[in-house]
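fyi for ur records
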Amino acid sequence: MAPSALNRPAAQALRLAPAPRPRRIRRPLGDILVETGALSPADLTKALALQARQNLRLGDILLAHGMVGEADLTRALAEQYDALPVDLEALPPDPRLIDEMGIRTCLEEAALPVRRLGGATIVATARPEAFEALRRRLPDGFGEPVMAFACERDLHRAILATRNRHLTECAETRVAEAESCRFWYGQAPRNILGAGLAVLATAAVLAPTSTLTLLTVWALMTLLATTLLKIAAAVTTLRARRAAPPGPPPQRPAIARLPVVSVMVPLFREEDIVPRLVARLGRLTYPKELLDICLVTEEDDDTTRAMLENARLPYWMRVISVPTGSLKTKPRALNFALDFCRGTIIGVYDAEDAPEPDQIHRIVRRFHERGPDVACLQGVLDFYNTEKNWFSRCFTIEYASWFRLILPGVARLGLVVPLGGTTLFFRRDALEELGAWDAHNVTEDADLGVRLARHGYRTELIGTVTREEANCRLWPWVKQRSRWLKGYAMTWTVHMRDPQRLWRDLGPWRFAGVQILLLGTVSQFLLVPLMWSFWLIVLGLPHVMSGVMTPPVMLGVGALFLTAELTNIVLGMIGAHLAGKRGLWGWVPTMHVYYPLAALATYKALFEMVVRPFYWDKTSHGIADEGPGYGSDI
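which gave:
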């Protein structure tokens, strides 16, 4: 194929050989790099030793360890495969060919159709060794594929430049509409909610005693259910811990070939925390050539992107910029970045996270030991600024009891596990089968936990700890908690659109668990003022319910309240003990004041469900960062 077959700009961007060259034995890539002076013989020896133990290309190992530069590797690969180098900025790919091949196929295969020339199609690839196998899977309309070479980052940039709108739309609608809360876009759901609240307020005015009696009965029922669930979960966890054999776990045979693990870290206005984040992730001991850290930023977040550009990231860390769309949420960003991930295991961290160094090793080991039905692993969350103030201490106690007692017990009881937003790891094939995250749900983690269970997958808790920053100021805490509770309410609404189907998918036991964990939680916080108002009766002050709350009834209600409070205190103390923070025991009784503050968040959440259902009220990080990240021990 002669150069005259291309127009002038294309001919400058891609120089095609005038005739096919005869087959020849390819020289080893390492020899080419050593001969050109781009790689030292000692580094080549190290890289080959690593390659012998892993199912990786030599070039990826060299880049991950900084042994060669990307430009040198690109030239060496082009020489090794006698490939045709292509500049995708000077010769942008034809979007029609990309659509014909399929965007996800392009990303999975690290290949991109560029131009059709007569009966041939130029296909740029970052994996020349796999081109012959790819050739057989290309669309028939491509005719005779001609291999060109471009590095993977250039391929990604070209795809983003030509098809970012399509990728953005896919990121916002990956989850099937029947399982997504984007139906809330319509005015009808919000009108129904608003009308329901108006009817409730009217009933409270016209028939206060009857209305408050019904609300009280509901509040007591949900309080009893949530208390019993906490007790059952905690007892189950403690029994499992007692049954575990003492001492370290037995040595297990090594995994023959470790997988590539991709970890996505969504960042939005996080310029202050970027240096600490990079340092903390750098402490992970998983082989860097098998680690794919994706720092996911928003296209219009110029300050964070500028900080990342100046951070001198290692090759195994890369930035994925999410184009502006119709909404801006964490799950949307995760959905967009997922297609660019390289790993078979997908993880999620938050910007302020400080994971234990061996965490990825432990995740990979657990997935290896479990069957494919275990699609998700949830790590333990803790805080590194516990002693900042009263809020941070209470938040630490809450997380200690939740992640070390209640949530492991919920999983062992076979109930649906409402996931936390970070230190989550998934089998990629299962995650993609479910459509990944609901881009419109501001508590995407809890929703994904329900969908995993509905599709027959299980979630397990794993005892590896990630420390993060406790929200230690009142209004930011309320904003964060309102987002969580809004998501809980919307998740319950989505999955209860068809209660019969949910019952069939989950069975009666897990169906009941969803009602307690989602609806029960929101109800408890919503009715806190009503519950606290009963102190007026105790103090002999007037109350609308005075005629209903007879002494025997008050005795029963008081016994339930006392049981619930004692349960919270005991679980808080046990959780603090398991977290190695017995110094917090003296603060546990003050949780009686801490938990009701979520009532403010609940009312904010209900208001936003009517006026701003998809608004992501961002949590600010780096305000009280006292934790590890500069060499201290976690």
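DSSP finds 25 helices and twelve strands in the chain. thats all i got for now
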